[in-house]
């Protein structure tokens, strides 16, 4: 029978590994070793929590004074004007004598004053700077007509294959299948010319959007004041429905495709500005410093490192 070898009970336990401080002392080397854990930074309990908002950090007496002020204003409003208090919208009041010997009071509100200023500004733009809007409309219309003529001159199988190749570079075979199905569907539905018109409009809108949004995005990334000024404007441009922008487009550019491009630009320019700004800000400082170390010019830094 085979015997099972039991572990030796009298064997000595393995020696613990000698630390670096012990090795230095054994070899007679003098070194000032810091105590263990001396390099660690003890985080106070306050830093372990999430940062509190400014409103939550205000003292209690501030809130007492603030709500006391609100209560005083409420009591004064009810005591002086009553619950049906209206905003003071009247800016000017004029009394005119009528033929019957009476007096007619003409009031002008703040809304009427602002509306009059806006109407005068729009009239001045449409009359005095009509040459600018007419020139822009002519350039955009010429670009649209040129692209439409070129795309309509090319046989439709060539356009379908070219767009399928481009879609393969973007989304591989699934995108190719969808592109072929969509283009052939609109062709067999006798909507090919309308599709070409839409493609031409999108090409012109994208080119103008990139040409306008890219410089503004670079400016917003390098200038915090410009970024703070652009942010609410961009939020408003992306919040309003597109139908609202058709009205000034029709007013300044007239009825036609340039007005549609103007409304499209309102939605297309803000993403270009935001993405350019975000992309430049997310470039690491080490990469920018390395580019400066190699002697890159500001234009090379922008085009080859940040963009």
Automatic annotation (TrEMBL):
Residues 39-50 have a biased composition (Basic and acidic residues). Keywords: Cell membrane, Membrane, Transmembrane, Transmembrane helix, Transport. It is found in: Cell membrane; Membrane. Its main location: membrane. Residues 31-52 are annotated as: Disordered. GO terms for biological process: choline transport; glycine betaine transport. The keyword Nucleotide-binding does not apply. It is a multi-pass membrane protein. The chain crosses the membrane at residues 62-81, 153-170, 175-192, 198-221, 242-269. Pfam families: BPD_transp_1 (PF00528). Belongs to the binding-protein-dependent transport system permease family. This is ABC transporter permease subunit. It comes from Caldilineaceae bacterium SB0661_bin_32.
């Amino acid at each position: 029978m085979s015997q099972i070898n039991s572990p030796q009970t009298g064997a000595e336990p393995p020696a613990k590994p000698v630390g670096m401080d012990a090795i230095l002392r054994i070899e007679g080397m003098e070194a000032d070793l810091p105590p263990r854990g001396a390099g660690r930074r003890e985080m106070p309990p306050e830093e372990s929590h999430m940062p509190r908002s400014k409103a939550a950090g205000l003292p209690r007496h501030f809130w007492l004074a603030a709500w006391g002020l609100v209560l005083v204003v409420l009591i004064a409003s009810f005591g002086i004007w009553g619950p049906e208090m209206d905003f003071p919208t009247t800016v000017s009041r004029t009394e005119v004598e009528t033929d019957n010997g009476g007096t007619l009071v003409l009031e002008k509100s703040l809304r009427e004053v602002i509306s009059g200023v806006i109407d005068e500004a729009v009239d001045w733009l449409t009359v005095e700077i009509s040459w600018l809007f007419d020139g822009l409309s002519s350039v955009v219309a010429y670009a649209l007509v040129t692209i439409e003529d070129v795309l309509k001159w090319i046989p439709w199988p060539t356009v379908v294959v070219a767009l399928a190749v481009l879609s393969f570079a973007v989304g591989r075979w699934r995108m190719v299948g969808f592109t072929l199905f969509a283009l052939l569907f609109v062709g067999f539905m006798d909507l090919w010319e309308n599709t070409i018109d839409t493609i031409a409009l999108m090409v012109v809108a994208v080119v103008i959007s990139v040409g306008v949004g890219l410089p503004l995005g670079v400016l917003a990334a390098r200038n915090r004041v410009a970024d703070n000024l652009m942010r609410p404007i961009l939020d408003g441009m992306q919040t309003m429905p597109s139908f609202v922008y058709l009205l000034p487009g029709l007013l300044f550019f007239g009825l036609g495709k340039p007005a549609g491009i103007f409304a499209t630009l309102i939605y297309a320019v803000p993403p270009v500005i935001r993405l350019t700004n975000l992309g430049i800000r997310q470039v690491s400082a080490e990469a920018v410093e390395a580019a400066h170390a190699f002697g890159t010019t500001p234009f090379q830094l922008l085009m080859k490192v940040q963009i």
